[in-house]
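Researcher: Checking consistency across runs. Here is Flavodoxin-like domain-containing protein again:
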Amino acid sequence: MTNKLVVYITGTGNTRRVAEHLADAIGADLREIVPDPPFTDADLDWTNPNSRSSKQHADRSMRPALAEDPSIDGYDEIGLRVKKCVRNRGFSRIDL
C-alpha cells in the first residue's frame, strides 16, 4: 500500500473543500500550505494593485514564507492542489 498525501493552499476555503474530497476519495493524508503571515481578505484583493497578492504576482521573486514546513517525508504519492488565482499570486513554485 502506498502512502498518499494531498497538499493544498487556499485563500477562501474552496480549494480546501476540493482537496478534502480528493484526499477522502483516495485515502490520503491532507496538509495545508499556510503562508506566514496568513493572507487576509485585503491581501487577496486582486483588483487592488497595492494588495499583497497583486504585488507578489507582479514580482515573481516575492515568495511568502511558510508558517511550517510541509514535509513530504514518508509519502510515495503526492498530489498538489493549487487554485489558479492563488498560484498566480505567489505560489506557482513551492519547494517541498
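Researcher: Does this match what you'd expect to see?
Model: One thing to look at in this run: Strands lie at 4-9, 29-32, 35-36, 65-66, 77-82.
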